[in-house]
Write a structure and sequence with these properties.
single chain; 118 residues; mainly alpha; 4 helices
Length: 118
């Protein structure tokens, strides 16, 4: 797979991830605590794709690297919120399985991209 094809596929993958995260966040409890986690999860989970899209349109290698590091950080944060949701038993493992696995895979991908830029 060539770099442009990889980038396009990863943009689509992060867009799908964002949509699934928004759908999942809508299932969280409508309590004060649930609303806090819903906001944080939605913010982090949608930020990954937005920042990756910006990275692909960056003006310099330094800008690209900065955006990739943000993607890495947001992937890690999303994974954290999903772990908390499971820990609180707001949703079960089955309900969060795809998103949890995908957040880990995205974290690995962006970590790898970031390391290869040094």
């Amino acid at each position: 797979m060539k770099n442009k094809e990889f980038a396009k596929n990863l943009e689509e993958r992060t867009l799908l991830f964002a949509a699934k995260i928004l759908n999942l966040s809508a299932k969280l409890p409508n309590t004060t605590e649930g609303k806090v986690v819903r906001y944080q999860l939605a913010k982090a989970g949608t930020s990954i794709g937005a920042n990756y899209r910006e990275a692909n349109r960056s003006r310099s290698k330094a800008d690209f690297k900065s955006k990739i590091k943000i993607c890495e950080s947001e992937s890690s944060e999303t994974n954290y919120w999903l772990k908390l949701i499971r820990f609180m038993k707001w949703l079960n493992e089955k309900d969060t399985e795809w998103e949890f696995k995908e957040s880990g895979e995205l974290l690995a991908i962006f970590t790898s991209i970031g390391k290869n830029l040094n």
